[in-house]
Amino acid sequence: MIRTFFLKLLLVSCTFTVVAQTDIDKEQILWSIDQFVEGTNNSDTTAIRRVVDPSIGLLTIFNDGKKNIMAAETLEMLFEDIIKPRIKLQKEEQEGCIVETNSILASVWCNYKYLVNNKISHCGVNAYQLYKTKRGWKIIQMTDTRQKHNCR
Length: 152
Fold this sequence. Notes:
The protein is an alpha+beta fold and about 150 residues long. It has one domain: Nuclear Transport Factor 2, Chain: A. It contains 3 helices and 6 strands. The protein has helices at about 1-40, 45-50, 75-80; strands spanning about 50-65, 70-75, 90-100, 105-115, 120-135, 135-145. Strands 2-1-6-5-4-3 form a 6-stranded mixed beta sheet. The longest helix has about 40 residues, at about 1-40. The chain is globular and about 70 Å long. The N and C termini lie far apart (about 55 Å).
């Protein structure tokens, strides 16, 4: 009986440790993604570089009315786009992010809307993949969808 009690106690302790580590990882993962989005909103390439792997893949998927089309972009292309002088206020807002991780690799799915002069231009989903490094979680892939209908 005592042996069973200690075995159950050990099992509960191990489970708590894994859950606690996963929660810490999820917070750090979301922090990296927030830094990426804030970096794009503020044209801050230094902030973005801190949270992405240099070989990051950037993909956009949209529908042209007939079929889905995928377009690839490099990190340098993203930087060129976000540092252009802007006449209109542009901002991306994310919500409802779902994080899955095994503390080595993470996948995150976030709904977003893109605002131009505080009006919704388009919306969709941002799907991120990250891996854990000694310097924190790094984004290795970001894929977004873009649509103009059913945006809230």
